[in-house]
Structure formats: structure tokens, C-alpha cells
Amino acid sequence: MLPSRWQAFSSSIFSKMSQMAAAHQAVNLAQGFPDFDGPDVIKEAAIAAIRGAFNQYAPSTGLGELRRQLAQRQAAQYGLQYDFATEVTVFSGATEAIFCCMMGLCGPGDEVLTFEPFFDCYPAACAMAGAVLKTVPLKAPDWSFAIEDLRNAITERTRVLILNSPHNPSGKVFTRHELLSLAQLVQEKNLIVVTDEVYEELIFTPARHLPMARLDGMRDRTITISSTAKTFSLTGWKVGFAFAEKKLTELIRIPHQYTVFCSATPLQAGMIAAFQLGQEYFLDFRELYTRRRDTLLAILRRHGFVCKAPEGTYFITADYRSIRDVPDMEFATWLTEKVGVACLPISNFYLDAAAASANLRLVRFAFCKQIETLEAAGRLLQERLPEALAALKN
Ligand code: PMP
Where in the sequence is the domain holding 109, given as residue range(s)? Predict the structure, then answer.
């Protein structure tokens, strides 16, 4: 019997769909990890660190040199100043940072707000802290929201707003106008904002990433979380980080200290090389991802999916209604088994998955894959989709 706070959680949909993809030798566009590795210079730096003297515990807050680089980058990129000693912390991935925020900021019965659909670790992080997650809808197909919905959801117990931009799974990048309306509300209601900016470098022209901490009055009430996972295509290293004003930083360092204590030392050392990469790396990165996005968009549209080009992230959310009008889990399972292309049902990104499944006809495809992988998915759709549809009629 699971303790009550965990009863709503079963095995993750990411693992489930990846296992299904493997069992059917399907092209796995379900889980968001690249099928290629990040730059060799980063790997070499980590290997050198293992051969050198970087194999014992790092400081709990992260290697000083890495934190110094992170602070420099945040200043250069966004004009945000943080003291690397007291305001920058390295975590074992953005996931751990999010958990530490919930444990550091919330107590039992406190409420946390976020937009729905949401990345799946948010409810679990709230449950671990004994906090209650409440959601406000982003409405498909343009993923807009009503600020009044948010205002109405705030109670005496609300402590935190979790904001994810660029947003998984929708691909939405919150505009300055939207962020301003959120900033005004959270200041009025005295909330802390935890921003999940792990896709900050995965942004497509003309969209621009604006960290919430940049807005007037927001630096000292925002914890900005990001990760090296997506930016350097090394998702398995789990090196994430957070920027926050000194007192907020103290709060999130406590759970970190008593859970993982520190992130893997040589991988942190490797990431020092990552932040020394020049602008060309980031330009190439965006250009390659624009090609991947456009390749997958063309394939999906050719086969009857209706999808908007995402403004950020490496996900396309596709409406499959014109192919089959069935719930998303049934569609995703069928596509994996009969066509050989795995995708993710969107209903798992909602608190009430059953209601979302009944109302939405959306699945998410990841394009953090080599062009050949995406083209292989295109060929499978071309060859097998008509047959699979015909078989349903027999
Ligand atoms: N936030 C979002 C929105 C994500 O999509 C992911 C990864 N899928 C994470 C956080 C987790 O990042 P990390 O691997 O650094 O823990």
C-alpha cells in the first residue's frame, strides 16, 4: 500500500511509452531525449575531471567555478546579476531543483498554482512537500490563458506559481505582455514564482525568451531554474541549476543538502567547458533544431495531423482527430504498435487525465532526433498508416 500522498502516482508515461516503443521496435518520438550526444569538448572535460582530482564530493552548492560561469552567463545573456556564492546553486537536474523549491517554500496544506498542461514532476514535487497543486488551463489550440482564472484560483494558502516557458508540451513561449500580467498579479498577491526555463535555448525566430526575473519587481521573488540537459544534449548527466535572491537560495539549499548533498562532481567539471562554448555553438544548435522542427512538422501535416509550429522546446503537439477520433492513449498505443511511431498522450499532463482524454485529441511528438530518425518516422507513416487504417475497417 502506497503512502497516501503517493497514491495518485503510478509509473511514468515516459517510461511506459518508451518501453512500448522498444517492444514494437517503433521510432521513439515519445520521450524527450536526443538520439545524439552533445559536444565532445564537454565529454572530454568530464573524462579529464575523472582522471584528475574531481572524484570526491563537490561543495553542496556546486563547484565554485561552475557557479561563477553560470552567474556570468545570466548577466551577459539577460542582464540579471547574481552573486555566485550566495545566489546560484547546482542541482541534480532541474527536476531536483523543482523538488527542492517545493520542499523549501511550502508546508503541508500550502497551495501551488501552475498552468495545465504541465510537466509531470510538478504534482509529485508538491505531493512530496505536502502541498496542493491547483491548475489554470492553457487553452488549445493557441494555449492562451485568462488572468482572471488565475486570480480566482489564488487563496490565502497560495504560496507559489510555477511557470514553465518555453512550455512543455505546448511549445508556447510566454510573451512579455503575458509575463507582465502574471508579474502584476503575483506582486499583488505576494507569491513566489518558480520558473522552469529548461528550454531557454530552444527557441525559434521570431519568439524570444524573457526570464520572469527580468521584469520590474520580480528578481527577488523569482527562483529561476534551468538545466544543461537540453542545451548541451546531455540529458543523462542531470546537471541543473537555480538563481535566486539570497534568502530564497538559503531555503532551497537545505533540502538539496539533505537529499543528494551534491551533484556528480566530474559532470559539474565537464559543464564548465560547456559554458565556455562560443556563440557559434548556440547558433548552430538553433539552426539544426529549426531544421528538425520543420522536417517533423511537414511529415506530420502530410499525414493528416493538424499542428502549429512550436515557438520553443523540442515538441510538436498534434491534433490527430482527422485520422482517428479515439482517446489519446488509445491513439498513441495504436500508432506505436501498428505504424511503428511512438508519441505521448497529452492527457498525462493534466490533473484530471480522464477528463482531458475525453475532451482533447492531442499527442506530443519529440523532434530532438537526427533528421534520419525523423525521416524514418515519415516513411513508416507513409507505408503503414493507410494499412493500419484499412485494418480498422475490416
Ligand atoms: N522541466 C521540463 C519542462 C522538462 O521538460 C524537463 C525534462 N523533460 C525537465 C524539467 C527536467 O530537466 P532535468 O533533466 O534537468 O531534470
Answer: 40-274
